[in-house]
Amino acid sequence: MSELHKFLFEGLPVRGMLVRLTDSWKTVLKRREGIGAFPQPVRELLGEMAAASTLMQANIKFNGSLILQVFGDGPVKLAVAESRSDLSFRATAKVVGEVPADARLEAMLNLHGKGRCAITLDPQDRLPGQQPYQGVVPLHGDQREPLQAVSQVLEHYMLQSEQLDTRLILAANDEMAAGLLIQRLPVEGSGNLGATSNEDLIGLSEGFNRIAHLAATLTREELLTLDADTVLRRLFWEEPVVRYEPLRPHFACSCSRDRVRAMLGGLGREEADDILAERGNIEIGCEFCGLQYHFDAVDVGELFTPGRDQPPGSPALQ
């Protein structure tokens, strides 16, 4: 089963999490087969993003959706992973060109340096007029080396947004999506006058630097093949690790017929009638889970009946 392990290093200002998406990740790929499987590099990218969004959601304990998006000017126009407060997740991508079998992040999304990464926090009980928080950064990581993976971008993002040193290791194949996050704990009272801020401590924590160095020795193969106990023992066997009961991430999609009807209503009666005239019915598929929604002439007529209440909501990805 999919699992997420949280742990602390006793006596050190360092926390960690290890996620292994197994059955839930295979469900994502299986559902995608009905509407067209993604190329292997895209599947790996989405798996890494699914693991990363799950780690980030569990790290901040946000009551709502954390939506991780990367978009750019390559054949992959958009990749999305969403994780909610119950650790349910979903992921999808929009691919419009050929993706080479050996493509990395740069070739997929950042051909001319226009790629971006956006992280959106959408509260579950949003107040009237309240907008989701969104942070956007360019697709780049450590300037000393070429951009290869989404983990570099997210480490850079978290350093900017939280002023906390973070080490993130991600890997995915068709059997598993996995990730390890190591982060320096924030300083208590960092907002008080005269106190040391989180930003002042960037790169200076010997404890974090040692743990991050150990984490960096974890190989892709080890992350994808070893169980959680073996990974943590192999990396931190000399460190006093305090572990907590594992959590259970799982796949779930928030699409619904009402939300699809809302999107269809946004097209307008004329365009909906044109589609009906051409095809006889309207079929809309969810890009996340592959579920197909069908609307005939009667459904469309009811949707645009004057005075009829329109269903709330709108799809997350159109």
The ordered string of helix (H) and strand (E) elements is EEHHEEEHEEHEEHHHEEHHEEH
The CATH class designation of the largest domain is: Alpha Beta
Kindly state the number of beta strands: 13
CATH superfamily of the largest domain, by name, is Hsp33 domain
Question: What percent of residues adopt helix (DSSP H or I)?
Answer: 25-40%
Q: How many domains, in number, for the residues?
A: 2
Briefly note the CATH topology name of the largest domain: Hsp33 domain
Description:
By secondary structure, the chain is of the alpha+beta class. The protein has two domains: 3-251, 3-Layer(bab) Sandwich (Hsp33 domain), CATH 3.55.30.10; 257-303, CBS domain Like (Alpha-Beta Complex). The chain has ten helices and 13 strands. It has helices at residues 23-33, 40-60, 105-109, 150-162, 206-215, 220-225, 228-236, 257-267, 269-279, 297-303; strands at 3-9, 14-21, 64-71, 76-84, 88-95, 116-123, 133-138, 166-172, 177-184, 241-243, 250-251, 282-285, 292-295. Strands 7-6-3-4-5-11 form a six-stranded mixed β-sheet, covered by helices on one side. Strands 8-9-2-1-10 form a five-stranded antiparallel β-sheet, with helices on both faces. Strand 4 and strand 5 form a beta hairpin.
SSE topology sketch:
Blueprint: E1 3-9, E2 14-21, H1 23-33, H2 40-60, E3 64-71, E4 76-84, E5 88-95, H3 105-109, E6 116-123, E7 133-138, H4 150-162, E8 166-172, E9 177-184, H5 206-215, H6 220-225, H7 228-236, E10 241-243, E11 250-251, H8 257-267, H9 269-279, E12 282-285, E13 292-295, H10 297-303
Parallel strand pairs: 5-11
Antiparallel strand pairs: 1-2, 1-10, 2-9, 3-4, 3-6, 4-5, 6-7, 8-9, 12-13
